[in-house]
Specification:
This protein has 223 residues and is of the alpha/beta class. It contains eight helices and eleven strands. The protein folds into two domains: 117 residues, Response regulator (Rossmann fold), CATH 3.40.50.2300; 96 residues, Winged helix-like DNA-binding domain superfamily/Winged helix DNA-binding domain (Arc Repressor Mutant, subunit A, Orthogonal Bundle). 40% of the residues lie in helices and 22% in strands. Helix 1 crosses helix 5 and helix 6 crosses helix 8. This is Two component transcriptional regulator, winged helix family. GO terms for molecular function: phosphorelay response regulator activity; transcription cis-regulatory region binding.
Length: 223
């Protein structure tokens, strides 16, 4: 799974960015200061970093310089500063791209995806043999594949992020659908039914989406 390290001291912004990252099928790792950035990069090995300039304890430019001493991980810098000198300092430190505040999460995601595509990082995640491939919204298993709709992909991706965790219908609407559609309980049940049918089409008898009555749904990996 693609990991995106988000270093942002404004917690509301960090949470919003992490939400969009999750929705796109990536794993967000969030820090709210520059203190543990280097240790986190070495331990988690993220595929790309979103790094704010103004951070407590250690600023973003310093973090970037230290990262560049041992890694070429792509870095997108967030900044409220718009002067040419500030951009030059960041570029000299090794930043790959800049996003100026205020920004839209959609724009940031497009920039992240552009860099991932340019660097050749595969846009897919694996989970016990099952693969979710965002390039076309395919579900793959043992050389076979079936196409998911956008909403089916978002729903299954959410469940696969944390196997065993139960998500209520309300949480699915908020986290998988981002409150952007008028999804009813019946619609979610229909999506779950369709996903199960498509999983079976891949010759998988195991029920990967388990219903916990009165609570919601959870992903159960293939053993």
């Amino acid at each position: 799974m693609i990991k995106v390290l988000v270093v942002e001291d404004e917690r509301e912004i960090a949470a919003q960015v992490a939400k969009y990252i999750t929705r796109e099928g990536y794993k967000p790792i969030v820090l709210n200061s520059g203190e543990h950035v280097i240790d986190t990069v070495k331990q988690e090995l993220p595929d790309i970093i979103v790094l704010d300039v103004m951070l407590p304890i250690k600023d973003g430019v310093t973090c970037c310089k230290e990262i560049r001493e041992f890694s070429e991980i792509p870095i997108i810098m967030l900044t409220a500063r718009k002067t040419e000198n500030d951009r030059i300092l960041g570029l000299q430190a090794g930043v790959d791209d800049y996003v100026c505040k205020p920004f839209s999460a959609k724009e940031l995601m497009l920039r992240i995806q552009a860099i991932l595509k340019r660097t050749g990082i595969e846009n897919k995640q694996e989970n016990s043999g099952l693969q979710l491939d965002k390039n076309g919204f395919f579900l793959k298993y043992n050389g076979q594949e079936t196409k998911l709709t956008n909403l089916e992909f978002s729903l299954l991706n959410l469940l696969m992020q944390k196997p065993g965790r139960i998500y209520s219908r309300e949480q699915i609407i908020e986290l998988a659908y981002n409150n952007e559609c008028n999804a009813s309980d019946r619609a979610i049940d229909s999506h779950i039914k369709n996903i199960r049918k498509k999983v079976r089409s891949l010759a998988i008898e195991h029920n990967v989406i388990e219903t916990t009555y009165g609570a919601g749904f959870r992903y159960v990996p293939i053993s």
